[in-house]
Amino acid sequence: MRAFLEIAELGKTYPTPSGPAVIVRDVSLYVDEGEFVCLLGHSGCGKTTVLSILMGLTPPTTGGVVIAGREIDGPGTDRGVVFQSATLLPWMSVEANVRLALCQVGAGGRRAETYLAAVGLAGLGDRAPRELSAGMQQRVGIARAFALEPRLLLLDEPFSLLDALTRMELQDELVALWEAERKTVVMVTHDVDEALLLADRIVLMTNGPAATIGRILDVPFPRPRDREQLLARPDYFWLRDTVVGFLEEQAHVPA
Q1: Domain map (residue ranges) of the chain
Q2: Backbone dihedral region for residue 187 (phi beyond 0: left; psi -120 to 50: alpha; all else: beta)
Q3: What is the pLDDT of residue 106?
Q4: 81 φ, ψ to 5°?
């Protein structure tokens, strides 16, 4: 049986005056439908490059990506994207930003308010983005991505610019949304604890240049997950130490 998402021998190289710069090479990964996968590694290891190729924003130099049996060749509404910042249209209301996603998929009959309520923003649809905190704006971004009802959700460090408390709140809300809908998710993160809370598998990237997958770890914790219960498990710290150990090894690998 074919995987829902197939990433096959993916590579990206850019020409430079001093010769080709290989960003990632030979990245192969198979993701089942409904699976939550986190890409984790040091800065510059090509995580965002891989995600950008999945978004259809960056063409691969080698290899390809197949989603539900169809090779992608550009952006599409089958993929919902949440970036580090909310990237909302500032001249439109919060509700209009979400409604824009609904119109893209011809779902004008669905109400934007439903998706805003799902992320804790009921009644705030008439606000302008500038009237909301950074955490609230990111909630709108998540609501907009879910409004597409995508087959694949791509998250590029969506909580990295938030304070610790807001970050935890949004992690919990994302878990609740994912539990309800079981979208297939690929998420880039630098945060080991975030990956252990959210992911079914953690894909560890080697350092660049020419970064690739160094190791894939299964996260065996049962769902639904509770942050305090996870921290009470002895295998949590064993798995955390395994991830941190890999990252420390990479920190000492010569570039």
Answers
A1: 5-78+153-251, 88-149
A2: beta
A3: 80
A4: -125, 135
Burial 61-93 (b: 16+ CB within 10 A, else e): bebebbbeeeebeeeeebbbbbbbebebeeeeb
63 has a pLDDT exceeding 90: yes
Q: Residue 81 corresponds to which tokens in the numbers above?
A: 């994207």
- DSSP states of the chain: ---SEEEEEEEEEE--TTS-EEEEEEEEEEE-TT-EEEEE-STTSSHHHHHHHHHTSS--SEEEEEETTEE--S--TTEEEE-SS----TTS-HHHHHHHHHHHTT-TTS-HHHHHHHTT-TT-TTS-GGGS-HHHHHHHHHHHHHHT--SEEEEESTTTTS-HHHHHHHHHHHHHHHHHH--EEEEEES-HHHHHHH-SEEEEEPPSSSB-EEEEEE----SS--HHHHHT-HHHHHHHHHHHHHHHHHHTS--
Tokens of 250: 């990479």
Residue 208's DSSP bridge partners are none
User: For residue 169, which phi and psi values (nearest 5 degrees)?
Assistant: -60, -45
| Domain 5-78+153-251 classification at class level | alpha beta
DSSP-assigned beta bridge partners for residue 71: 66
Tell me the pLDDT tens digit for each residue of 160-202.
889 999 999 999 989 988 998 899 999 999 999 999 999 999 9
Question: Residue 193: which of 219, 161, 158 has the closest Cα?
Answer: 219
pTM over 0.85: yes
Q: Give the whole-angstrom CA distance, residue 194 versus residue 203.
A: 13
Contact by Cβ (8 Å): 160, 84: yes
pLDDT band at 1 (very low <50, low <70, confident <90, very high): low
